[in-house]
Amino acid sequence: MRTISQHTSISRLRKGETATIIGYVSGEIPLKIYEMGLLPGVVFTMKQRLPLNGPICLHISGNPNSVALRRAEADLILIEPLS
Amino acid sequence: MTEIKIALVGNPNVGKSTLFNKLTGLRQKAGNYPGITVEKKTGSFTEDAVRYHVIDLPGAYGIHPSSLDEQVVYDVLADKSNPNHPDLAVVIGDPFNLKRAVFLYQQIRDIGVPAIFVINMADEAERAGLSIDTGKLEALLATEVILTDARSGKGVDALKAALSFQPGPHAPSFNIPAEYHEAIQQVKRQTGEEQDYPAWLYLSQKHSLSHGAAQVGAVAAIRKEHGLNPHRLQIQETMARYGKLDADLMHVVKDPAKKREHFTERLDKLLIHAVWGYVIFFGLLLLIFQAIYTWSGPFMDAIDNGFAWLASNTAAWLPDGPINGLLTDGIIAGIGGIVIFIPQIAILFIFISLMEESGYMSRVVYLMDRWLKPFGLSGKSAVPLMSGAACAIPAVMSARTIENDKERLITILVTPFMTCSARLPIYIVIIGLVIPAERVLGLDLQGLVLFGMYVLGLLAALGSAWLLKWWLKSNYKSFLILEMPTYRFPVLRNVALHVWEKTMGFVLGAGKIILAISIILWVLGSFGVSDRFTDAEQLVKLENPGMSAEDMENEVQSLKLEYSFLGTLGRFIEPAIEPLGYDWKMGIGLIASFAAREVFVSTMATVYSLGGTDDELTIRERMAGEINPHTDRPAYNFASGISLLLFYAFAMQCMSTIAIVRKETNSWKWTTIQLAFMTGFAYLAALVAYQLLK
User: Which residue of A47, A54, A68 is in closest CB contact with B482?
Assistant: First the structure.
């Protein structure tokens, strides 16, 4: 069985991996995260990440636009890998 | 005629501006909202004997503001006493992100603003196999739904016809949880607000300007009594609304969810690639700078020659006298000095506008964030910094999309270090005078020095940003959350309008100052009260008997200039600038360019032409022949030239930028600190350079 704890943050996903959002680390996270559609139950794919802890680019399923966020923000989102 | 105020509202990248341009055509103008310089675009048109005033609000994802742009949207929509408060809001959505647009629509209706709903890019959705049941959507939204394709203009007439529609009553789409009912009742009693949702907005927004200071304190007390955190209320509202929308929209949108956007995916593989992304971006920057110099060359030469022709013809046509001098040396030279910038500014804005329209600009933000963050900046600072290479004024204004107050302030404070196009003529003239036209390693030395000046500007900007980062405290956490839209072919009409608007803004804004200064300089340089000014001719005759008539005339002119008001001013500051290697004539140029640095070259033209009689020489030849009376060396030698270059690279010499920084930061303190730091640093750098090199 795969341990979930190792895979609960977006920044640990590899390129092309898909996950679903299950919650958030705390309530003190930017409203923009919600407004951009990173809501519980949403399925997304890790599209690309820049090296040296650069920002992460996600592809939310069903949305042709991508969302970019810094690693610090990405780590506030709790996820469960699907693939 | 009936007049109706319409506001266009929508998420970013839904084609809102294209629709605005289609609705209003050229009958539009850009201005500022009172008090803050978020750009306000308004326009109007007449349809069925009704005059519609349209305001294009900045893009927003929701009604709760997290940047200055979004604050404007909130203030205009929520505050009924706001002069821009619309009679009808037109909410524009993208069919692929319908949920988000409906979210915004429902918030706006809950505030109490009547609204209709537009689905733009409808054709694209159809091609992609996405179907939207507009009948069901109209029932859900209790309003009219119009399908448009702003690019082709399809549906725009239907939209115009729908503007007279009066939406029926709208049931609140957000049910405020019962636990807050008591607090809501208290807010309603306190503020006199009758509806629940506006009262909820009082509770969920801490810093709202439109509520008035007295109410803000009272509401804060209610919030405290109930232990409410406004940010958490906003999140709770957002999640509740989205949760409900998922169910509501299930039968409205049929998405076969087949794989789309191959084009964007493929392009992004390259454009945001960890290596190629940067290579392409820097290649593009190089192309932009090349274009600014080479493409603008012929236009600038034509403008230069045109104005020289105009000046010499005017001078020949008018009788000699003060009016002739004022027109040719003052006004025509002054206007020519502004118009010559138009090609460069227009070319830069063409590129910036193409990058924004195509969706590439958000990729630049994504790529640059990692590299700007260590300097206390954000990826979003890349846009102001790049625009700063044209002109700091629109660049400082474009910092408004940066959400974090500290990052925004730092960006505004350091952007004027970037080499704007106003510095360019000074650099070119001085480099031409003091740097030999040689080749080093096959590269043109003068070109290399010019490139070095751009690098210097960037280093100064990043260095001072790094210093400010340690000094400044922020109330908010820095974050970057950015939408990267699909790539689109730019709408050329939008690009043209944007370039036109920005260029004219520069010409009219800077033009007024330059023109005024040219006239003031001419007056100060042509009149004086000292004996040596009024009796210049006798004095020269007495001191130089037997001089040729031509030399005599030259001598009289330069003596007159030296003792004119302008010369007196220049000699007054001479002790301060002598250690930098400048004489009093250059001092005049420095004084004049504290209003706008591009004035330097035209001032030196005025100063040297006032002091001479020969009109044939170009300004550069005059400068090359000028001798510093103190050192008996050419006034523009290597040491003083480098010192001058450094001074102009760092000093804050632009009244328009000072004014815009004051407006944008809303603080005299920061404006003064910026002015003092930049100018002090410029003085020190010039001093050290001259003393080491002389």
Answer: A68
